[in-house]
């Protein structure tokens, strides 16, 4: 029977690193702690990290078989958790295919969160992994049995709605607390300036929709379904020609479900091989609540205190609206799904100013002030490359050269 949400506990190890290795994974009901599935296997001679990734993959496969929609993956391997969150580089070439396989599985779910837990709270998966290691070493023990603990204390979350900059700062502080200087840990070696082959990356061509009456009038335009103006339709056609020149081959065109985006996306699709335009709800504009359709001056007059609080923190929502933190969480999910679903391919993403700004903020590891300093024109194009090892390269931001005559 399908379940909506599950918790995965996964582990792996080897006796010798490399040595006889195995993994274990447990899938639980998040409310009751009931074990829904177990996976374990002896995998011959390999390293701890390979075995840990194999445990994660087995857990994600089991969750998919159960029909889960939302997943929390808990591991005591900080390396795997941080690499899957894209904050640590994957230096070892033997781990990159495993990370790519795990990322592909992540793309099957609506929501996946990775959390680090201490080893003593991962005893069930650890016991399964140890039994598998015994089998790999030829000891052929009886299958480990562990009484499933109830999930009481929440894990220490590693992945969440924080920006990449805040997450990186938290990791630097953790290294300082343990006496490790920045860059001395092989798993956190700073990124190299060495050029990377673009054919390995998933390329996202981020397009803001064309002009609408509300953009002309500088009104908050969130969930209201406002059509393109005549100039907006001309911008969409010009943008389509520019995208076609940038990308000889496009695997998919995904779009916010609002008509100003789908009309822009359809114009682009017509010039890049006519792939179907796929609506993606997580790319919709921020919900501005009661400010919808109003100008900044009108909001300042009517909600001065609420506006100041909103401008000061991405965690604050407009009255009856949505915070930028919430928008960032869902746009991040969409980006990760695209990374997993289209490895090494080009995807056109048509969205709105807020989601695109938040994607670029996190891609550039910038702070929240970035959101107020970046200007995105209607029908502007930004290009982002996502690598299988979690690396990111921002190729361009707000390209509008194609709009000269629109």
Automatic annotation (TrEMBL):
Q: Write down the SMART domains for this protein, in alphabetical order.
A: PGAM
**Catalytic residues in the record:** 209 (tele-phosphohistidine intermediate), 285 (proton donor/acceptor), 285 (proton donor/acceptor)
| Any one GO cellular component localisation term in the record | cytoplasm
Which ranges are annotated Low complexity under compositional bias? 174-184
Domain RNase H type-1, first and last residues per copy: 2-142
Give binding positions for substrate: 260
What InterPro entries has UniProt attached to this entry? His_Pase_superF_clade-1, His_PPase_superfam, PGM_Phosphatase, RNaseH-like_sf, RNaseH/PGlycerate_mutase, RNaseH_domain, RNaseH_sf
Stretches the record annotates as Disordered: 139-197
* Record GO terms (molecular function): nucleic acid binding; phosphatase activity; RNA-DNA hybrid ribonuclease activity
Task: Quote the PANTHER family the UniProt record gives.
Answer: BROAD-SPECIFICITY PHOSPHATASE YOR283W-RELATED (PTHR48100), GLUCOSYL-3-PHOSPHOGLYCERATE PHOSPHATASE (PTHR48100:SF62)
Query: Mind telling me which NCBIfam families this protein's record contains?
Result: PRK07238.1
From the Swiss-Prot or TrEMBL record, give the protein name.
Probable phosphoglycerate mutase
UniProt organism field: Micromonospora auratinigra
């Amino acid at each position: 029977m399908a379940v909506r949400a599950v918790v995965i506990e996964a582990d792996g190890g080897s006796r010798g690193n490399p040595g006889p290795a195995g993994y274990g994974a447990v899938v639980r009901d998040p409310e009751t702690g009931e074990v829904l599935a177990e996976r374990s296997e002896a995998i011959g001679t390999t390293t701890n990290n390979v075995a840990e990734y194999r445990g994660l993959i087995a857990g994600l496969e089991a969750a998919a078989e159960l029909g889960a929609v939302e997943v929390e993956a808990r591991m005591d391997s900080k390396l795997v958790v941080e690499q899957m969150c894209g904050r640590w580089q994957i230096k070892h070439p033997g781990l990159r295919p495993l990370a790519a396989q795990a990322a592909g599985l992540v793309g099957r779910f609506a929501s996946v969160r990775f959390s680090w837990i201490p080893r003593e709270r991962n005893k069930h998966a650890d016991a399964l992994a140890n039994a598998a290691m015994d089998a790999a070493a030829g000891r052929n023990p009886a299958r480990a049995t562990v009484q499933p603990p109830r999930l009481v204390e929440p894990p220490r979350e590693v992945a969440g709605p924080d920006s990449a900059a805040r997450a990186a700062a938290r990791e630097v502080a953790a290294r300082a607390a343990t006496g490790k200087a920045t860059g001395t840990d092989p798993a956190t070696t700073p990124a190299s300036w060495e050029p990377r082959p673009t054919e390995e990356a998933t390329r996202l061509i981020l397009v803001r929709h064309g002009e609408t009456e509300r953009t002309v009038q500088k009104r908050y335009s969130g969930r209201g379904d406002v059509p393109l103006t005549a100039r907006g339709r001309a911008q969409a056609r010009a943008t389509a020609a520019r995208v076609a020149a940038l990308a000889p081959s496009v695997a998919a065109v995904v779009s916010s479900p609002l008509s100003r985006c789908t009309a822009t996306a359809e114009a682009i699709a017509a010039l890049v091989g006519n792939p179907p335009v796929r609506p993606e709800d997580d790319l919709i504009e921020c919900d501005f609540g009661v400010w919808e359709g109003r100008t900044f001056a009108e909001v300042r007059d009517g909600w001065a205190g609420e506006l100041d609080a909103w401008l000061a923190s991405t965690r604050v929502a407009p009255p009856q609206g949505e915070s930028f933190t919430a928008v960032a969480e869902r746009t991040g999910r969409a980006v990760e799904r695209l990374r997993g679903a289209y490895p090494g391919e080009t995807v056109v993403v048509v969205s709105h100013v807020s989601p695109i700004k938040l994607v670029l903020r996190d891609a550039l590891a910038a702070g929240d002030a970035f959101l107020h300093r970046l200007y995105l024109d209607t029908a502007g194009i930004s290009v982002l490359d996502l690598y299988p090892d979690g690396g990111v390269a921002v190729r361009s931001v707000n390209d509008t050269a194609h709009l000269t005559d629109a």
